[in-house]
Known about the structure:
Bound molecules: zinc ion
Radius of gyration: 19 Å
CATH superfamily of the largest domain: Glucose Permease (Domain IIA)
Number of helices: 1
Number of strands: 13
Strand content: 25-35%
CATH topology of the largest domain: Glucose Permease (Domain IIA)
Order of helices and strands: HEEEEEEEEEEEEE
Largest sheet: 9 strands, antiparallel
Shape: globular
Amino acid sequence: MGGGGGGEMRSIYRGSILRWFVGLIFVLLGGQTAVAQTLQLPFQGTWAALQGPPCPNSGNHHCSTPNQQFAYDFVAVAGFNHPVSCIGRPLFSPTGGQVVSALDMYPNYAVPNMHPAGNHVVIQRSPNEFILMAHFSPGTISVAVGQQVTAGQQVGLCGNSGQSTFPHLHIHMQPTVDVLNFGTPGMPMNFGPLSLWNGTACVPLASHLLRAGDHLC
Length: 217
Ligand SMILES: [Zn+2]
């Protein structure tokens, strides 16, 4: 608003101090800007974030596991509110990077002694960014450990293997390679470009931190 030049200056000053402080925190955390990256959506068509940030949220089972605090459980949807089975739908790498883990040995429903992520891949995006994609259908993972992948490259087909009660894609990013290292806090994932249903229309967004309940269209 007009007037109050001094207030504007103080506001700018406070803003720059804040940016400096936030920047310092990021440097102290290892140089990661919290949501500076933009990742490609790992699917095509209409899906919804059944679970996702923010935590804490009593309805989000990820919140009790620090490395999954920004995790998503994406389900395919018909229309805008009806989850449908995603089994067999292609899933794509959200980033360029290297496959550092790949497991493809479980059926699509729970079995004893399974890995909680079931059939899964871990893609290393940078020295301290590792993305887990979990619950693939058996026999569908099309990348191997050591392989370089590009953003948008198909890595497998959606499924229900591991600890999964409904066919979905679990995806999260964390700073260490071991996805069973549950105690190390996970990292937010900014996806884009995408289109989000706002209740009346699909709104295109260049980049967005999705939240639980968001519908992609
Ligand atoms: Zn999950």
